[in-house]
Amino acid sequence: MALDQTQTTYGIAELAREFGITTRAIRFYEDKGLLSPARDGQRRIYASRDHVRLRLIMRGKRLGFSLDEIREMIDLYDLDPTEVSQLKMFIDKLQARREQLRRQQDDIIETLAELDQLEDQSRGLLADREARRKAVG
């Protein structure tokens, strides 16, 4: 892939620093086909397209999407530059993720209530046992 000399390019260390990730993570995304840098010998040269893709990968990960879901959304841009298909899919994924998080939130609330109940019950038993120990000893 030939790079336009007027196009902004990035080195792997520069991207790693900017996004707060390791160069190993960037190479992993490359291995997964999410990034496709040009090469100058052994040196990877990332174009603006890779920079945008990395930003989308990081956002997707932060939102809890899998790499396969992220790839699916990113690849849609290549098929539909108007971004209509990508945005529709993104909205669907956001709704599904929100529902998943709400279910997890309900589970967490229920678990916290159970923990509170068990802790109160255990504290009562402990106080009872300590009172018996003092009465005997």
Verbal overview:
The protein has five helices and three strands, in the order E-H-H-E-E-H-H-H. It is mainly alpha-helical and 137 residues long. The chain folds into two domains: 1-63, Multidrug-efflux Transporter Regulator, Chain: A, Domain 2 (Orthogonal Bundle); 80-137. It has a three-stranded antiparallel beta sheet with strand order 1-3-2. Strand 2 (38-40) and strand 3 form a beta hairpin. The longest helix is centred in the last third of the chain and has 53 residues, at 84-136.
Structure summarized in a few sentences:
The N and C termini lie far apart (85 Å).
Task: State the domain count.
Answer: 2
CATH third-level topology of the largest domain: Multidrug-efflux Transporter Regulator, Chain: A, Domain 2
SSE pattern: EHHEEHHH
Low-pLDDT segments: none
Estimate the helix proportion, in percent.
Answer: over 70%
SS class: mainly alpha
The backbone outline, from C-alpha atoms, is elongated
Could you tell me the mean pLDDT? 92
| Number of strand elements | 3
Rg over CA atoms: 26 Å
Q: Can you tell me the CATH class of the largest domain? A: Mainly Alpha
The neighbouring-strand order within the major sheet is 1-3-2
| CATH-level-2 architecture of the largest domain | Orthogonal Bundle
User: Tally the helices: what do you get?
Assistant: 5
Span of the ends, CA to CA: 85 Å
Strand content: 5-15%
Largest sheet: 3 strands, antiparallel
